[in-house]
Design brief:
There is one protein chain. The chain is an alpha/beta fold and 234 residues long. Helix content is 30%, strand content 27%. Strands 6, 7, 8, 9, 10, 11 and 12 form a seven-stranded mixed beta sheet that branches. The N and C termini lie far apart (54 Å). 44% of the residues are buried.
């Protein structure tokens, strides 16, 4: 299959193309407030490198969150619009699961154990999910949720956990985690912890091959937390 993957859930804005389970193009930038300006051009760059026109695609995959409210709306809107335009199926890929998948697939040897993908939310809050990797397969232990850093010891219990996601290396440096957590928590390197359009495309190909197609009329970002608009005070 030929699948375009779109990632906009974090500071990463990216597009990648997979052909028959191999990433052949992956273009991304990591910068604030750039998604609306650059996503379409990054898609074009990835498609050009792959030597494909939009009509050559068999499907599209998009990271649906949780993550940045604005970034997710942009990514899902672009993915839906392209899917409508070329009449191709769309796969909705959960962002936290995709972060865990990158750890499993790109670690050498493949990672086995507990993995906790997290993304920063407002203030001292995070989005997180605990999964278990065994024999190359991930099993979620609970669904994506919002939490505070102080809740991590209770959430991960006594498991030895590898934490991944945007900014986890900075979290480890800037914050003293709750007592006892340091013994059971390790942090992925910055490259593997970054959201990847290539992983979204690979998971999208597998998802579409299983016949799991998103309803274009119903698909929405998975915010986990309610989106609050900021209003100026008079």
């Amino acid at each position: 299959m030929r699948v375009l993957g779109i990632e906009t859930a974090t500071l990463v804005c990216g597009a990648a193309v997979v052909v028959d389970r191999r990433v052949i193009a992956d273009h991304w930038i990591e910068e604030k407030n750039i998604h609306a300006e650059r996503l379409v051009s990054l898609i074009g760059e990835a498609m050009d490198q792959a030597g494909l026109a939009n009509a050559d695609l068999d499907g599209i995959a998009v990271s649906v969150g949780p993550g940045s409210f604005t970034g997710l709306r942009i990514g899902v809107s672009v993915a839906k619009g392209l899917a409508y335009a070329i009449e191709r199926p769309l796969a909705a890929i959960p962002t936290l699961a995709a972060l865990a998948e990158r750890i499993v697939r790109e670690s050498h040897p493949p990672y086995s154990g507990y993995v906790l993908p997290i993304l920063r939310a407002r203030r001292d809050e995070i989005y997180c999910q605990l999964l278990e990797a065994r024999d190359g397969t991930l099993r979620p232990l609970w669904p994506p949720r919002d939490a505070t850093l102080d809740q991590l010891p209770e959430l991960i219990e006594n498991h030895d956990v590898l934490m991944t996601g945007e900014g986890v290396d900075k979290l480890a440096i800037e914050r003293s985690f709750p007592p006892g957590l340091g013994r059971s928590l390790r942090v992925a390197n910055a490259e593997l912890a970054r959201c990847s359009a290539g992983i979204i495309a690979l998971l999208g190909e597998e998802t579409l091959e299983r016949g799991e197609v998103a309803d274009l009329a119903e698909i929405e970002p998975q915010y986990v937390k309610e989106f609050y608009f900021r209003t100026r005070q008079p």
